[in-house]
């Protein structure tokens, strides 16, 4: 992502990447060690250059990286974050699940539980990193940390909400929602 962003020109196309990470905790540039794992569960902590605190990534989680020229799109960080949240909210609404974003804590929530985390990095008017949607990811690793810097934050996943579509199916639908909002 960094290499792609550093090599961009005014003519470079924007890209959306969908992927799944092996088990890893990622700590953003503001990441405070007091939010890190309280036990050694064998999952590495990697410092990354996105905003935010710490989160867990692993199999069963859909990660969407947005590599966008924000200047060309005429959008700043906060509106982009709200559009990313809205894409997840719209996706969940397709399944009859009510979700919301919160001004004080970026991400998407179903009730009191977080279902999607967001974090971006902007360099030279272009962003990278993105969002992570919990599909059927193991939730135990979240118990070892203060997810996104919030002690006791409940975390949920689409499977627990009765959504049985695969990560691939959800990814295709999520990309459509992101594209619709970015047009």
Write the layout of secondary structure elements.
Elements (H helix, E strand, L loop, with lengths): L1 H6 L7 E5 L4 E4 L17 E3 L6 E4 L3 E9 H4 L3 H17 L6 E2 L6 E3 L2 E11 L2 E9 L5 H4 L23 H16 L1
Helix pairs in contact: 3-5
The DSSP helix count reads 5
What name does the CATH topology carry?
BirA Bifunctional Protein, domain 2
The CATH architecture category equals 2-Layer Sandwich
How many distinct domains?
A: 1
Provide mean pLDDT, rounded.
96
CATH class: Alpha Beta
Briefly note the structural class of the backbone: alpha+beta
Q: What spatial form do the alpha-carbon principal axes imply?
A: globular
Could you please describe the fold and organization of this structure?
The strands form 2 sheets. A 6-stranded antiparallel sheet has the order 1-5-9-8-7-6. The chain has helices at 2-7, 70-73, 77-93, 140-143, 167-182, and strands at residues 15-19, 24-27, 45-47, 54-57, 61-69, 100-101, 108-110, 113-123, 126-134. The longest helix is centred in the middle third of the chain and has 17 residues, at 77-93. The protein is an alpha+beta fold and 183 residues long. The chain is globular. Strand 7 (108-110) and strand 8 (113-123) form a beta hairpin. The mean pLDDT is 96. It has one domain (2-182): 2-Layer Sandwich (BirA Bifunctional Protein, domain 2).
Summarize it.
The chain is α+β, with helices and mostly antiparallel strands. The chain is built from 5 helices and 9 strands. Helix 3 packs across helix 5 (167-182).
Which terms would index this structure?
5 helices, 26% helix, 183 residues, alpha+beta, BirA Bifunctional Protein, domain 2
């Amino acid at each position: 992502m960094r290499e792609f962003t550093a090599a961009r020109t005014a003519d470079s196309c924007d890209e959306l990447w969908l992927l799944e990470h092996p088990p890893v905790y990622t700590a953003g540039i503001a990441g405070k060690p007091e939010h890190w794992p309280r036990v050694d569960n064998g999952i590495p902590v990697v410092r990354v250059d996105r905003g935010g605190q710490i989160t867990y990534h692993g199999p069963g989680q859909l990660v969407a990286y947005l590599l966008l020229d924000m200047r060309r799109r005429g959008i700043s960080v906060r509106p982009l974050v709200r559009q990313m949240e809205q894409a997840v909210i719209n996706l969940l609404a397709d399944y009859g699940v009510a979700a919301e974003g919160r001004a004080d804590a970026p991400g998407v929530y179903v009730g009191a539980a977080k279902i999607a985390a967001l974090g971006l990095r902007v360099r030279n008017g272009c962003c990278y990193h993105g969002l992570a949607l919990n599909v059927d990811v193991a939730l135990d690793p979240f118990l070892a940390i203060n997810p996104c810097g919030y002690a006791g934050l409940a975390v949920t996943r689409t499977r627990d909400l009765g959504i049985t579509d695969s990560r691939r199916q959800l990814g295709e639908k999520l990309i459509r929602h992101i594209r619709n909002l970015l047009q």
